[in-house]
Fold Gfo/Idh/MocA-like oxidoreductase N-terminal domain-containing protein.
Amino acid sequence: MSDPVLRAGFVGTGIFATDKHLPTLQSIPSHFKPIAAFNRTKAKAETFATKANIEPSHVHDSIDSILKDPEVDFIDALLPVENNYSTIKAAVDAGKPIIVEKPIAADLDDAAKIVALDKSTDIPILIAENWIYFKAVDLIKERLDKIGPIVSFTYRSTGPFYQKNKYLSTSWRQHPKHIGGFLSDGGVHQLALLTQVLGNFENISAHTTQVRKESGTDDVLFSTVKLQSGVIGTFTYGSAFGAVEKHGSFIIYGANGSITLDFSAKNAHKKLTTLVGHYGETIDDQEVLEFDEDSTGGVGPEFENLYEAITKKDKSLIRSTPEVTYHHLAIIAAALESSKKNGDSVTISKP
């Protein structure tokens, strides 16, 4: 028996739906088929439907209408995040599995409601933090024991501000209703990778600032953190600077060596360097691995994860759960609170 094909109903047909989600689903025709679409501006949904080969009869006038479409097996929602909770609740009430774009919600109250809703239902809910599905996560975790025990880390993702960034033109990014604006919009990606490897944060001491008026709110974050495991480190994120090379690195320091992930834009490939040695005078083992993430940047694997959860009727298979992604938004909220308190340590909240 062949695998079932899940039919996707798109709620929101903007840039990321058109440029990333649609071609990703179209590249996996054995598992997915775009079947329906809704946008508040119907003309945009109709344009999207043409690209997706969706019949005009499946271009809907409301979320309620697309949720009632019997041919829709699951909802792919790409909306301003302040709409995430209401959309997820409507999908669950209609019995439809749903994937929504990150961050999980506009604020921690809504995020906590989504976590509670997720715990109350067997219907799969996946928050689309695609960095959770990066190869780098597993590659690093496979090597941690070689350098342990882990002592500390430095995570840095910094880069210049681009005026012609196509995502910048969206009003919900220029006038963010979600906490942290660009810090949560992009920062949760970085935190997904970090926490998938080393575990959750316990507290954070941070300073934030706003460099660009176009960001709508603070857009640079420098911090020191302590993980629940006791590991200490630094987390730096911001893409609002002037001309500078885009830099990305994640260095993990152990008592018996180090692991360095270099994901800077100047490199053609990601590079993972593992050094094993108890003292600086002796390196017992050295490995340099160059690799590429999959061509979809983790979007394909997250959809495959949703497919597995739906077809096996087992939501426990989902990796990017509301509870996991709540933590990433809570870190940004705590960092902003810490900054207002002149860098005082703030404990990360729980749902």
